[in-house]
Design brief:
Elements: H1 2-28, E1 30-35, E2 40-45, E3 52-56, E4 60-65, E5 73-81, H2 82-92, E6 98-103, E7 107-112, H3 124-134, H4 137-142, E8 145-146
Antiparallel strand pairs: 1-2, 2-8, 3-4, 4-5, 5-7, 6-7
């Protein structure tokens, strides 16, 4: 009985070890996007390599599908002042695909996705590529981390 229990414990420890290794491997298989102006990072899938571009304005960071230009917006991170967020952002969360993902004393970070078609209509290959990239958006949003 004691040897079965010991074997069971060893099996559980092995699974925990393998799980920890696979999580590190996933991080190695991603692209780190670091925004030094607004102090945050996102993990983009390695499958996006060469297929996306980032366009930045003073308060907005757009991630776009290169193949689907013009357009091709996959997601946007926007930086608001606390006042702007209270005045406009909170209401927009009830109207469009907009969500608060971070906050500091003076800033609010939001994440949004487009509300209209962003791929080249009539081109099935470009639509497939866009849809495959768009399927990764929830995990990208979940990877948001603020840096000090």
């Amino acid at each position: 009985m004691k040897s079965r229990f010991l074997g069971f414990c060893l099996a559980i420890l092995s699974l925990c070890f393998l799980n920890a290794c696979s999580e590190k491997n996933e991080d190695a298989q991603s692209i780190l996007y670091e925004n030094t102006t607004h102090h945050f990072t996102l993990q983009l899938p390695k499958s996006w390599e060469g297929k996306y571009e980032v366009k930045e304005t003073e308060k907005q960071i757009f991630f776009l599908s290169k193949a689907n230009q013009p357009g091709g917006i996959l997601c946007e991170v926007r930086i608001w002042t606390q006042e702007e967020w209270k005045q406009d952002g909170e209401e927009l969360t009830t109207i469009i695909h907009l969500e608060k993902i971070g906050e500091t004393k003076d800033k609010v970070y939001s994440f949004s996705t487009p509300t209209d078609v962003q791929w080249v209509v009539g081109d099935a290959e470009k639509e497939r590529e866009y849809q495959a990239m768009f399927a990764d958006i929830p995990s990208i949003k979940a990877s948001f981390q603020m840096k000090e």
